[in-house]
Amino acid sequence: MMSVGENREAAESWTCEPLSGRSLDEIVQDAENAADLVTYIRKPDVNLDFRLKFIANHEEFFDVQQSDRQSRIRTCHNLSDEGIRGDTVFLFVPGLAGNLEQFEPLLKLIDSDQKAFLALDLPGFGHSSEWADYPMLKVVELIFVLVCDVLKKWPAAVPKDREVNPFDNRKIVLTGHSMGCFLACHLYEQHLAALKVVEKMVLLTPPKAHIEQLSKDRHLIQWALYGVFKLPWLFDIYRNKFDQVNGLKSSGIKQYFYQDNNDIKLKYRKLWQFKNNINNKSRTIIGYLLGWKAVDWVGFNDMLAQKGMKQSIVIFGAEKDPIAPIKNLEYYEDTIKKQCLRKVIILPDCSHNLCLDRPELVCRKFQQEVVGNNSL
Questions:
Q1: 250 is annotated as an active-site residue
Q2: Which of the residues 71, 128, 178, 282 is marked catalytic?
Q3: pLDDT beneath 50: ranges in the chain
Q4: What is the CATH superfamily name and number for domain 4-17+52-210+294-373?
């Protein structure tokens, strides 16, 4: 087992290994020399440059059955690895247009401490199958069914009756990023609170607590979203002709990264984000906005207040985040029960995709506040 100091050192020297075997310098140089970055990065022979060995070594697909739909979901986990200690699983839920690979620095950090992790691609993003529509609570239900299915393959050290508790005596550290914070809160309220399995919740750059524009009462906006959902090429025109042609100066990069220097690892991470951006389908993005479900914060707090609940909540904000400004965190600080909200951490000089913008800093803080302090 690595000490806290060794884990911190590993986090600070964080790097990534592409499946292509090429160096990051080669990959970045070829991309920078390309006449058209969009065309270049879509080439099939470039794919392995942005597939990471650590993810590939821990990747597994699961067929998840719900009452009205079946999904093929990509996961990344180390539950089958030898040497994994304890019965706590770190569960990672990405946000809108994100996927599990954005958590790679944190997954490697947890794995280095021989703790269990599980991350997933949401339906329609990454390498998971698409849906006809994307109601948020259906996505939440899918995550719950998936987690139960995955954990049943690797029973806990101290088995219990799975009919009573499908988590089989395991505990969960539930981490969401951006929209994934809302998914995590819904997952807690809808499914996990009653099972008393959540040890800690970690919210990474959570969105505004109440997004009025996505309210079902905003009929004009809802009709506009529905129109684009049915005719996604309208959004494609903007993305393809006016935004993504700007390459690493496009909005999907500028809003996700604050760091801007000549560091090769940073340039590579930006290229990875850009490739993810152009692979995401407009229809899926709009579908999630149409299916948006606000968190009932009163009900959420009521769940936290129930007898026997022991989880704590840690929030990470990014100082330079234009998508989820840190002023939005005031609502969470004022609303979440004080005995549950353990800490709010503001990362300096960091933007929305904090794990790729400043991975070393995020890993160090996550080690200090979550991994090294996950027993209550």
A1: no
A2: 178
A3: 1-2, 4, 7-8, 10-12, 375-376
A4: Alpha/Beta hydrolase fold, catalytic domain (3.40.50.1820)
